[in-house]
Amino acid sequence: MQPVIALVGRPNVGKSTLFNRLTRTRDALVADLPGLTRDRQYGTGKLGGRSYLVVDTGGFEPEQKNGIVAEMARQTRQAIDEADAVIFVLDARGGLQIEDEEVASYLRRSGRPVFLAVNKAEGLGEQFPASDFHALGLGEPIPISAAHG
Ligand code: GDP
Ligand code: MG
Description:
Elements lengths: L3 E5 L6 H9 L17 E7 L2 E7 L10 H16 L2 E7 L6 H13 L3 E6 L10 H5 L6 E3 L6
Parallel strand pairs: 1-3, 1-4, 4-5, 5-6
Antiparallel strand pairs: 2-3
């Protein structure tokens, strides 16, 4: 069975853009409006000779108890539970936000291997706020740019 890798993070950090990059498709809905991708989306990525299943998710706003936001949070937790490893996508430009801490807290309890992909890092150089993201306690932040490869 191929390993399952879930992409999680709050809305608008670039999960769907990264999904498209990893799966080389435009299947995931990339939106300028936060939170437009409501459902999980599955695709196949390849690394060397091996393939893996990539799961894109909606956002994660556990403060809200009802409606679409709670549904998105539930889907994200389910995707984490089903994954062999998780890519936690963060925004280098938007910085660390309270929703990121909530995701981090759930991820720590999940026991899954977590990779911190700090997106939108193109052109930041020395300005990359590594120590902010390091403080999440989930390992070394990895600067990436999903949009620019
Ligand atoms: P999602 O809500 O987490 O799935 O985020 P999306 O993939 O829909 O992207 C949200 C916004 O961020 C869109 O306007 C993207 O074009 C933009 N975006 C995604 N990746 C990058 C990146 O690497 N750099 C920059 N500057 N913008 C990006
Ligand atoms: Mg999306």
